[in-house]
């Protein structure tokens, strides 16, 4: 039966029943019409299908599945095609487990380093985040499994996440928080979007017509279903009208009955219900008709997880080229995480791995002399003198010390935010003590987000692996010994002090309200503007080789706003290792008429080069990508004038610079009104002509402070001020005439 035939057969009660889950993870079936159950499960970096009754939340036990590196690490690869492979691999495991919808990717912006779910999210930058998500979704959906991008939108903290009202200005909402979803939704077309728990400017995301209908469906052309986050529905009738189709998990019939009554009483139109039911049926039918091929090679997926982990590891520092290590060195491995790795985060994304590699076992496969000491107890922050002594003694007799540090699970998880960005005290002290006896220290970090490194000057190298998944052990070992060359880059800024973060004052808010006071200045957009010294900038990551950038070419100088900019340059591997580089394109708008970040990422690519190899890199960006969101016009606009195109190896390591000029094909038409300022009016030729006398009067000697003050007063005055300061020559009739002439000007 097709959708229309099914619609004709469904009773009102049955239609209402389809609006909510049968249990925690399944939609309802209607056997008489051949509508089968479809199953949705977490999550963003591996399948978490509980292996018990689906009527329970099941945060503990799930079927074995490949645990890929978590979101923060996936984004650190900056490798679009590799992320697509991850999507495909997870989807195959979904098929193998009869799962139809995967609840991921999770693309909320890392507004504060404290957010407990930062390990799951991709970036502080919406372009990086959305592009990574786009490829992940393409991978998942290429296998016939539906992806569910989440949490739509502005769900950037865990503290009171079910009720907090996010107060965000429209420009930041569009340019940062929605941007992180936009390209992924428009171009990868996920079958499902999960709406967030929180409120946005006073309205719950689930009830939010502007968000779920006006922007998502009407502006972006989205045709799939919207699913609530688990328990996010506030008012079922309102949410249905807003465009929220499926409520999860089961509401035990409560809201289905409310909708039934609302339709019966005419409170809600049957068309509104039908619209949602049709979308739900489309999703169900897609899965009813798909072929259920079970061909998962879990070994292959494990190896893929290892490859991804290798590409995710970021070499933050490497003084004296201490890395890669010499296999014949006497190596002390210190730190509990070398034996008991922290490889994933807590909460709904928690995967039961098919196997787990241990870094020390993998290191022993390469090195000839390895000793191990635990160094600290991750269960508490207290200093254990005996553990430190044992570690120091081994460090004394070793050529090099590799310290496995990180945040214990109890520090960060879904459900709660971190209190600060410090590592446990006992780990920082351990570094200080080791430094007293051995200066060759390499730190390998397992963290979900930015941490302070008070010992940074004492160590020669730092590797940040984030949470590397089940195959992180071999990835770290391969990188330590140079079998793989680091190519990860930071997808978030590592700041020096929490206070430097722009959301510091407004995180996590109070009285169930949080103000995004920093507006669009999130992450590097803020640190660059304020020229703040950071530990490691956005986009940073070293290699064992060196890359040279040269010969930037931009296909022309002048563009219209509906064109594309073709950029090319040469990249050469001038070092000793075959390796990959992430090239990053930023744009900058000198002399902007609005307050704008100094630079913004627009495109990136990961490129592999042999030793000595040089290649031409070709990238394209749309002129439209240079736009900002104009609140007055309620639309993205491209400012005319000069733009800089910056090619960097990181946001603070710009290697090449070019510039272009942009014109709008259609002039942006500002409308004038009684409160338009003289300054704005006389920017136009018509305005100058209409207020000719005034313009002449404003040609004053700038050294005469009184005259200058008067000039500024006039410039800042709204047109209505001419009633008082226009020598009696203006009344409202005259002013309205001026306004009409200005607005009618072509
Ligand atoms: C989380 C979602 C998750 C869902 C189902 C919610 O609490 O916010 O990310 O997909 O639970 O586990």
Automatic annotation (TrEMBL):
Residues 581-651 form the Fibronectin type III-like domain. Keywords: Carbohydrate metabolism, Glycosidase, Hydrolase. PROSITE patterns: GLYCOSYL_HYDROL_F3. Its EC number is 3.2.1.21. It comes from the Bacteria. InterPro entries: Cellulose_deg_GH3, Fn3-like, GH, Glyco_hydro_3_AS, Glyco_hydro_3_C, Glyco_hydro_3_C_sf, Glyco_hydro_3_N, Glyco_hydro_3_N_sf. The keyword Zinc does not apply. One of its GO terms (molecular function) is beta-glucosidase activity. One of its GO terms (biological process) is carbohydrate metabolic process. Belongs to the glycosyl hydrolase 3 family. This is Beta-glucosidase. The lineage of its organism: Bacteria, Bacillati, Bacillota, Clostridia, Eubacteriales.
């Amino acid at each position: 039966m097709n959708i229309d035939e099914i619609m004709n057969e469904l009773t009102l009660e049955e239609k209402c029943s389809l609006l909510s889950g049968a249990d925690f993870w399944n939609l309802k079936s209607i056997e008489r019409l051949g509508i089968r159950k479809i199953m949705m499960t977490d999550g963003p970096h591996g399948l978490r299908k509980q292996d018990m009754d689906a009527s329970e939340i099941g945060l503990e036990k799930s079927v074995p599945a490949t645990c890929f590196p978590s979101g923060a690490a996936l984004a650190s690869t900056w490798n679009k095609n590799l992320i697509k492979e991850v999507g495909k691999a997870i989807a195959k495991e979904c098929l193998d487990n009869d799962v139809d919808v995967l609840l991921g990717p999770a693309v909320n912006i890392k507004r504060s380093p404290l957010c407990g779910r930062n390990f799951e999210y991709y970036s502080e930058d919406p372009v990086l985040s959305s592009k990574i998500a786009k490829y992940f979704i393409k991978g998942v959906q290429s296998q016939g499994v539906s992806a569910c991008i989440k949490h739509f939108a502005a769900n950037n903290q865990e503290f009171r996440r079910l009720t907090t009202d996010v107060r965000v200005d429209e420009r930041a909402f569009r340019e940062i928080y929605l941007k992180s979803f936009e390209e992924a939704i428009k171009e990868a077309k996920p079958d499902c979007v999960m709406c967030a728990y929180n409120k946005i400017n006073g309205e719950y995301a689930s009830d939010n017509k502007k968000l779920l209908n006006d922007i998502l469906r009407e502006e972006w052309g989205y045709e799939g279903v919207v699913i609530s986050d688990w328990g996010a529905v506030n008012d079922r009738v309102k949410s249905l009208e807003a465009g929220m189709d499926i409520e999860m998990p089961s509401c035990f019939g409560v809201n289905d009955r409310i909708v039934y009554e609302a339709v019966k009483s005419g409170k809600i139109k049957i068309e509104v219900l039908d619209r949602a039911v049709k979308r739900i049926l489309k999703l169900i039918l897609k899965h009813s008709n798909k072929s259920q091929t079970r061909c998962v090679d879990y070994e292959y997926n494990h190896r893929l997880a290892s490859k991804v982990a290798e590409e995710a590891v970021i070499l933050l520092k490497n003084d004296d080229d201490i890395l890669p290590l010499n296999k014949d060195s006497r190596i002390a491995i210190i730190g509990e995480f070398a034996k008991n790795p922290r490889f994933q985060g807590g909460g709904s994304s928690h995967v039961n791995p098919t196997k787990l590699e241990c870094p020390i076992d993998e290191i022993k496969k390469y090195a000839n002399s390895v000793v191990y000491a635990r160094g600290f107890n991750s269960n508490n922050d207290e200093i254990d003198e005996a553990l430190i002594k044992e570690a120091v003694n081994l460090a004394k007799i070793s050529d090099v010390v590799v310290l496995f540090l990180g945040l214990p699970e109890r520090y960060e998880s879904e459900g709660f935010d971190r209190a600060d960005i410090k590592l446990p005290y006992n780990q920082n002290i351990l570094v200080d003590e080791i430094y007293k006896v051995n200066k060759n220290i390499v730190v390998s970090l397992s963290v979900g987000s930015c941490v302070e490194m008070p010992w940074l000057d004492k160590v020669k190298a730092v590797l940040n692996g984030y949470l590397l998944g089940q195959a992180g052990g071999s990835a770290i070992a391969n990188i330590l010994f140079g079998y793989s060359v680091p190519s990860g880059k930071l997808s978030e800024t590592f700041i020096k002090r929490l206070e430097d973060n722009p959301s510091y004052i407004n995180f996590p808010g109070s009285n169930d309200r949080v103000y995004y006071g920093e507006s669009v200045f999130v992450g590097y957009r803020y640190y660059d503007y304020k020229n703040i010294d950071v530990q490691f900038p956005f986009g940073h990551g070293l290699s064992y080789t060196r890359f040279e950038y040269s010969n930037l070419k931009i296909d022309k100088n002048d563009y219209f706003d509906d064109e594309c900019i073709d950029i090319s340059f040469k990249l050469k591997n001038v070092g000793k290792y075959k390796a990959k580089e992430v090239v990053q394109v930023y744009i900058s708008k000198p002399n902007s008429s609005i307050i704008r970040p100094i630079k913004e990422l627009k495109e990136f690519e990961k490129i592999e080069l042999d030793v000595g190899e040089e290649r031409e890199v070709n990238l394209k960006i749309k002129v439209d990508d240079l736009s900002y969101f104009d609140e007055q016009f309620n639309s993205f606009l491209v400012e005319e004038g000069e733009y800089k195109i910056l090619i960097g190896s990181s946001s603070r390591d710009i290697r090449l610079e070019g510039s272009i000029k942009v014109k709008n094909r259609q002039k942006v038409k500002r409308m004038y009104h009684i409160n338009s300022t003289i300054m704005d009016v006389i920017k136009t030729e018509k305005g100058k002509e209409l207020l000719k006398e005034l313009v002449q009067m404003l040609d004053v000697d700038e050294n005469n402070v009184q005259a200058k003050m008067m000039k500024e007063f006039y410039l800042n005055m709204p047109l209505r001020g001419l009633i008082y300061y226009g020598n009696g020559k203006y009344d409202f009739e005259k002013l309205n005439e001026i306004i009409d002439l200005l607005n009618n000007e072509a």
